[in-house]
Design goal:
heterodimer, A: about 525 residues, alpha+beta, eight-stranded mixed β-sheet, six-stranded mixed β-sheet, 16 helices, 22 strands, about 30% helix, B: mainly alpha
């Protein structure tokens, strides 16, 4: 039956293509040079750097804006960017940044201390997006222009992670933003699909839900690492389905894609002209227990589940492109320690803990909630289901839409017993992960275990307020050990970050601190045949 | 006839209000917190509250509903919390792409469905009839997303004849805006190469979208043709020795087309709704794709806006069919 259908359609297609068909080029060539095409699943509804910051948004923000400092390399280091150097006061409360004098916005205005002050003030006053990173420790009045190229931040209290957040605070041109303000909105409406930055690219076409184009700035103040090979621009094309992404890459309609399935990566790696970027990331996967309500409030039951879990199967779900967590912190993070005795499959121990729990004979059904459509999370649910059978615990696998999962997970009463959660830390500072286990984080999706250990919260507070790294390192080691002992989740694995690209695309630089799918577009270039 | 048309218009307004009320309530009682979602993963409570108050989500549901219906009466569909843009502006931006896809799919459905229906009636129970039966069952049964991906793999990846997705090649600038329909605008602007490339892009999604419609048209047309071909005036025409092809094409088809036209009217509204899946597979930037991305982000106002728009076209198409019928058959005006 299908053969006939396909034959009919093939004939129709043949007729159409004989008239119309012309193969697509490998990468897009324009009269200005090569344009790299990035195929990604996630649209960019709002580009304003102080309003939103998911992975696709931040990728384009980083292309058109600069920040005082920038994350580069693996492990991720903080490199000077708009700031050429900086110093901190002895009490850790005053940070002074000295700016480069050559940086210019795209309209030619200089990037000076006032632009820095305005941008930080804007971020804090708009109170969206990145504001949470600094708002508790810095007031707009605490930002001072010392001279044209020196800016000073006076913090309310010492805050060790301060510098680690600055790469995500992009600098906007105050003159341009003020010119487009409507009813005191700090230019929010205009910056939704316009840019006022100084980055290596300026904004080109902006076709919501279709494509977003950036064009390279020829005389970018920082220069281009690839010299004359710099691309004319990059098009971020929205391709939602993994199958369509794969097809676009194979056909040469995209030069790099980010959202293939684990099986697709294995398959496409064998294709000619395709290279796979496969790097150990910082995205952790955990099965978060509701530690406050229901059966999983019982630590012995949580331990039993953690020891019954088949961890090898987690790696198999990703066809080997993952590594097991040995701590709540990812290994690429400063202050990481591998916690001895972190549970691995041990059925005898699992049964021991179960016997000590209030459910000695099992006989319970626990829900496992995952994001609907996320195949890997569903398969991990199947692994869990199999793993808990020997304990006579049944698992009900429940797919949920992401907004519903977040809403349910924000309250103890509605949070499920087990939820699969992937978390990518915003910075390389250990506080970015440790704070997820602070009681203040309750209500956030990554804290839906509602973990409450006052001793851990106290250590976290102490560590983020200290400017002595040795002291902090010791505290974070203790924090990691204690969290593992309390077992608020099944510590799963670190899924590798992967992209499939055409082999002529050069300059790809991985940095684990970037979000899923996010790529630094600045060093990319096309190697001509 | 005027009274009949006026009655239909009143029904249309009433139905639109019903759709707006129902969709608004369903989307708002569904779980999910759009403000928290938009605020981002680490947002503090006061950041979430800022967004809630900006979009009036801090008000009670009856208050939100009365504000929404008041705005709606003034032609304001509200603002999307995700894109921060007015919904009406966005619906207008995406609607031409969807309408173009639906028009082309409808065209394909008619030019393939009607002749095949006619031929399968003429050669009833013959091999052609059996083949078209399988064809039409498949048309109704095949899931659009699966069929779309298969066509992409075949014609875009393996054979390389047609593009995978989108409306135009990436570096091709759209033609000047007249109607928003690229095929029409490119012809008006005299950009024939853009016309060809946009035609290439629309072929696969249009085939997928037209397949179920084509199947329905085919089946309805076949059934009507069989009935008409057995009627007395056709028998009389045959007795007069009129050539078969003239009987079928001139006398039978005309009468058999009436129910087919009704089916085409109904299918137009159905197709608008079906674009949701097809547009997602082919990244076709229309209202279907807009509705899906909004629904997945719990962005309610665009969902209500798109539902209203689809409902509007659906009702208009049905009303036009009703009016056409009433015009043809005066008995219906009194019904």
């Amino acid at each position: 039956m299908f053969g006939k259908i396909f034959r009919n359609i093939a004939i129709a297609g043949l007729l159409a293509s004989s008239v119309l068909g012309s193969p697509a080029s490998a990468f897009e060539r324009t009269d200005k040079g090569n344009v790299i095409v990035f195929g990604g699943r996630q649209a960019i509804p709002v580009l304003d750097p102080h309003v939103r910051y998911d992975w696709s948004t931040r990728m384009l923000q980083q292309a058109v804006y600069d920040a005082l400092v920038k994350y580069e390399g693996n492990p991720a280091d903080i490199k000077p960017w708009l700031a050429e150097k900086w110093e901190t006061s002895a009490d850790g409360k005053t940070w002074t940044f000295h700016l480069v004098k050559t940086a210019k916005f795209h309209n030619g205005d200089p990037v000076n201390a006032e632009a820095i002050r305005y941008s930080f003030e804007r971020g804090l006053k708009v109170n969206k997006g990145v504001a949470w990173m600094l708002k508790d420790f810095m007031a707009p009045e605490g930002i001072k222009v010392v001279d044209d190229y020196t800016v000073q931040f006076d913090l309310k209290a010492p805050y060790a992670p301060f510098l680690s957040f600055l790469p995500w605070w992009y600098i906007v041109n105050p003159a341009e933003v003020k010119a487009h303000e409507v009813d005191g909105d700090y230019g929010q409406k205009w910056l939704t699909d316009h840019a006022a930055g100084s980055g290596p690219f300026k904004l080109g076409r902006w076709e919501p839900n279709v494509l977003y184009e950036v064009e390279s700035v020829e005389n970018y103040w920082k220069g281009w690492p690839q010299g004359n090979n710099r691309p004319a621009g990059v098009i971020f094309k929205i391709i939602r389905e993994p199958a369509a992404q794969k097809a676009a890459l194979q056909r040469g309609e995209a030069d790099i894609v980010e959202g293939l399935t684990p099986d697709d990566y294995v398959q496409i790696a064998r294709a000619k002209g395709i290279a796979i970027e496969d790097h150990k990331g910082m995205t952790t996967f955990g099965i978060k227990f509701n530690t406050q309500k229901g059966p999983t409030a019982d630590i012995n039951l949580r331990k039993a589940i953690a020891y019954a879990m088949d961890y090898d199967a987690l790696i198999q779900v990703y066809n080997g492109a993952a590594s097991l967590e040995t701590s709540p912190l990812p290994d690429a993070m400063k202050g990481f320690v591998s916690v001895p005795g972190i549970p691995r499959k041990d059925l005898a121990k699992a049964k021991e803990y179960l016997a000590k729990s209030g459910y000695a004979n099992g006989g319970i059904t626990l829900p496992y909630v995952h994001v609907a459509g996320l195949e890997e999370a569903r398969r991990i649910g199947l692994v869990l289901l199999d793993s808990l059978k020997p304990l006579n615990i049944n698992v009900e696998i429940k797919p949920e839409q992401w907004p519903n999962m977040v809403a349910n997970g924000s309250k103890v009463e509605t949070a499920p017993a087990m939820t699969s959660v992937y978390t990518t830390p915003v910075s390389t500072d250990p506080d970015a992960v440790a704070y997820q286990y602070h009681k203040n984080s309750w209500g956030q999706y990554f804290a839906m275990m509602f973990y409450d250990n006052p001793q851990v919260s106290e250590m976290i507070d102490k560590a983020r307020g200290s400017s002595n790294w040795d002291e902090r390192a010791k505290l974070y080691a203790d924090i990691q050990t204690q969290i593992v002992a309390d077992q608020p989740e099944v510590f799963g694995m670190l899924q590798n970050r992967r992209w499939a690209r055409r082999d002529y695309l050069q300059g790809f630089q991985f940095s684990p601190v970037r979000f899923t799918g996010e790529v630094d577009l600045y060093p990319l270039w096309v190697k001509a045949e | 006839m005027l009274t009949f048309a006026f009655r239909k218009l009143l029904t249309l307004v009433g139905t639109m209000i019903g759709i707006a009320a129902l969709t608004f309530l369903i989307t708002n009682v569904a779980p999910g917190d759009p403000a928290r979602l938009v605020a981002g993963p680490n947002a503090t409570e006061d950041m979430v509250a800022t967004i809630r108050s900006e979009y009036g989500l801090d008000k009670s549901l009856p208050e939100q509903f009365s504000v929404y219906m008041g705005d709606l009466a003034r032609g304001d569909l509200g603002t999307s919390i995700v894109t921060t843009r007015p919904v009406l502006e966005e619906v207008m931006r995406y609607a031409p792409a969807t309408l173009e896809l639906v028009f082309v799919a409808m065209f394909l459905g008619i030019i393939v469905g009607v002749p095949l229906g006619m031929l399968s009636a003429v050669y009833k129970d013959g091999p052609l009839d059996h083949v078209t039966r399988i064809f039409s069952i498949s048309g109704v049964a095949l899931p659009a997303f699966w069929f779309g991906i298969i066509l992409q793999l075949m014609f875009a990846v393996d054979l390389g004849w047609l593009p995978v997705s989108g409306r135009l090649p990436l570096v091709t600038r759209p033609p000047e805006f007249y109607t928003g329909l690229l095929l029409v605008d490119s012809l008006i602007s005299g950009r024939f190469s853009t016309f060809w490339t946009s035609l290439q892009h629309i072929i696969l999604p249009a085939i997928v979208l037209s397949f179920p419609c084509l199947a329905s048209i085919l089946r309805v047309n076949r059934a009507e043709m069989i009935e008409v071909l057995q009627s007395d005036y056709i028998v009389a025409a045959r007795a007069h020795g009129i050539a078969s092809y003239r009987i079928v094409a001139l006398y039978a088809l005309k009468n058999a087309m009436l129910p087919t036209l009704a089916m085409i009217g109904l299918r137009f509204g159905w197709m608008l709704g079906s674009t949701v899946l097809v547009e997602t597979v082919f990244d076709w930037p229309g209202i279907g794709l807009y509705a899906v991305s909004s629904a997945l982000s719990s962005d309610f106002k665009p969902v209500v806006g798109v539902t209203l728009m689809i409902g509007f076209f659906f009702i208009v198409a049905n009303t036009l069919v009703d009016l056409a019928y009433a015009w043809i058959d005066p008995r219906l005006r009194r019904a």
